[in-house]
């Protein structure tokens, strides 16, 4: 089966799913956690945060929210670097980008499972 | 009253004499109903007969008059001078292609890519002539019609930075053409064609800049063809992992 | 496919400068769209650290929130929000064109698909916002 020659479809698939997650979920969370909470518009006390992330469903949600868009980043950033003329370094760039996303996934799992 | 004029800055390149192309300015009469191609023909007939460029139909069907007009790929027979007032108008050969002379680019690479996607109907077994033609309903025709309107003008390649960066990329028109045959109800060649579209230098090179579709004079929307081929390629890939033996092809 | 075809003598091969994306507004918009992913990824990394800090106790968590309130981080998140919105808008628009949605025989026009996606996005965002507001 010749379509398996390349791993591109795999990464592209993760990129797409991550792009969807980023499109639907990231702006509102960015607004909440990046602006509203730090600026004091919304209170998000520690006890509540802990209670929330202690729930299995919330953990799954956070995993989806954080880990999947990392592949979206990895894919796009890889091509940004290539677009900027680093064409000769294609292979190491791909490994570095997707590798970082995998590392981020493991890190997210680790953080979430420890709680 | 003096005749109204407009200036064209035309790229000139003489093979083996020039190391790099350079721009040459020509001032031509301005007419409301003239297109850039008319201005080039005026230059060639009246001013400098050595100016070299391709054209044929002068009505947007042959696809041979594509050039960069003020940096954007255009059919010069459809680019009216009046849309570029007051000028000057930059006329350059199609971007990213090797230049043979003046405004003429080398299309060998493109022709090869068109052939690679096998743009013809493939049947497992041809039915005998006596069985008549392969029939198709209007809905089946509608499914691929948009992607069959391509006139091979290569504007989409000249709009595609991915092609400029990696010339191996099969590119918009060829992928759209392959996709068109994949969509054709009479075709049975998906298993032969799709692997070529879904190669590493095929659809996966595309970063969806989307300019191919923006510049296409025929509304082909190659970007959509590429994205849909990616979806198909990803489906095939994951299926081949889940069902190593089964699935499609 | 193998190596690129060898250059032929006499032809002029144009070079692509690293700044090609500054040449046309459409290219620049493309680049900004791609770069949005960097801001999104940084935000998510910060969010991950925030969850991690929460696990370390109230002081660590409070200290982290204080850091996020610094002008630098607020500015970053404001910019990142702009990029995230740009990603959402471009993503939903493009997906609507690419994804053929059928209702029986007919293809739903991409504009309608996009409108549906935007509506869903809006409702989902409001729902998340209210869930956070009501319970805090
Ligand atoms: S897809 Fe459009 S722009 Fe590209 S070659 Fe065909 S007609 Fe020209
Ligand atoms: S001359 Fe035929 S398309 Fe312009």
Give a short synopsis of this structure.
The complex is a heterotrimer of chains A (115), B (249) and C (136). Chain A has helices at residues 8-36, 46-53, 56-83, 90-114.
Model description:
- The complex is a heterotrimer of chains A (115), B (249) and C (136).
- Chain A is an all-alpha fold.
- Chain A contains four helices and no strands.
- Chain B is α+β, with helices and mostly antiparallel strands and 249 residues long.
- Chain B has two domains: 5-105, Beta-grasp domain (Ubiquitin-like (UB roll)); 108-242, Fumarate Reductase Iron-sulfur Protein, Chain B, domain 2 (Orthogonal Bundle), CATH 1.10.1060.
- In chain B, the strands form two sheets. A five-stranded mixed β-sheet of chain B has the order 2-1-5-3-4.
- The radius of gyration of chain B is 21 Å and the shape is elongated.
- Chain C has helices at 25-56, 58-68, 71-98, 110-135, and strands at residues 102-103, 106-107.
- Chain C has a two-stranded antiparallel ribbon with strand order 1-2.
- In chain C, helix 1 (25-56) runs antiparallel to helix 2 and helix 3 packs antiparallel against helix 4.
- The longest helix of chain C is centred in the N-terminal third of the chain and has 32 residues, at 25-56.
- Bound molecules: iron/sulfur cluster and FE2/S2 (inorganic) cluster.
- Residues 55-58, 60-65, 75, 77 of chain B line the site of FE2/S2 (inorganic) cluster.
Question: Key terms for this structure?
Answer:
heterotrimer, A: 115 residues, mainly alpha, 3 helical TM bundles of succinate and fumarate reductases, elongated, C: 136 residues, 4 helices, 2 strands, flat, binds iron/sulfur cluster, binds FE2/S2 (inorganic) cluster
């Amino acid at each position: 089966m010749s379509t398996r020659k390349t791993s591109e479809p795999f990464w592209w698939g993760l990129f797409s799913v991550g792009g969807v997650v980023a499109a639907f979920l990231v702006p509102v969370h960015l607004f909440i956690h990046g602006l509203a909470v730090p600026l004091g518009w919304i209170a998000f006390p520690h006890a509540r945060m802990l209670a929330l992330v202690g729930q299995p469903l919330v953990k799954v949600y956070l995993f989806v929210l954080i880990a999947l868009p990392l592949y979206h980043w990895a894919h796009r950033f890889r091509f940004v670097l290539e677009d900027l003329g680093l064409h000769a370094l294609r292979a190491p760039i791909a490994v570095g980008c997707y590798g970082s996303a995998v590392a981020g996934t493991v890190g997210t799992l680790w953080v979430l499972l420890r709680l | 009253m003096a005749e109204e004029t407009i200036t064209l800055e035309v790229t000139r390149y003489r093979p083996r004499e020039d190391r790099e192309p350079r721009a040459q300015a020509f001032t031509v009469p301005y007419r409301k109903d003239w297109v850039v191609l008319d201005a080039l023909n005026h230059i060639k007939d009246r001013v400098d007969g050595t100016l070299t460029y391709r054209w044929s139909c002068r009505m947007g069907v042959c696809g041979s008059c594509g050039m960069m007009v003020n940096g954007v790929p255009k059919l010069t027979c459809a680019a009216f001078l009046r849309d570029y007032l007051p000028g000057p108008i930059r006329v350059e050969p199609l971007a990213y292609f090797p230049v043979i002379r003046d405004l003429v680019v080398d299309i060998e690479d493109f022709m090869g890519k068109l052939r690679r996607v096998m743009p013809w109907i493939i049947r497992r077994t041809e039915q005998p002539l006596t069985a008549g033609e392969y029939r198709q309903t209007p809905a089946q025709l509608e499914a691929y019609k948009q992607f069959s309107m391509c006139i091979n003008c290569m504007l989409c390649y000249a709009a595609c930075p991915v092609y400029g960066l990696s010339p191996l990329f099969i590119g918009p028109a060829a992928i759209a053409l392959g996709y068109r045959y994949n969509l054709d109800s009479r075709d049975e060649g998906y298993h032969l064609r799709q692997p070529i579209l879904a190669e590493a230098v095929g659809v996966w090179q595309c970063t969806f800049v989307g300019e191919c579709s923006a510049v296409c004079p025929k509304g082909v929307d190659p970007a959509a063809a590429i994205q849909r081929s990616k979806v198909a390629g990803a489906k095939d890939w994951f299926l081949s992992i889940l069902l190593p033996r089964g699935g499609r092809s | 496919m193998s190596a690129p075809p060898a250059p032929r003598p006499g032809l002029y091969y144009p070079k692509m400068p690293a700044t090609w994306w500054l040449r046309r507004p459409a290219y620049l918009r493309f680049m900004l769209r791609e770069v949005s992913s960097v801001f999104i990824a940084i935000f998510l990394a910060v969010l991950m650290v925030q969850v991690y800090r929460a696990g370390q106790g109230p002081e660590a968590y409070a200290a982290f929130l204080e850091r996020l309130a610094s002008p630098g981080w607020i500015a970053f998140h404001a910019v990142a929000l702009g990029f995230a919105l740009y990603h959402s808008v471009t993503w939903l628009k493009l997906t609507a064109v690419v994804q053929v949605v059928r209702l029986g025989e007919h293809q739903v026009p991409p504009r309608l698909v996009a409108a549906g996606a935007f509506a869903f996005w809006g409702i989902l965002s409001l729902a998340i916002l209210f869930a956070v507001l009501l319970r805090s």
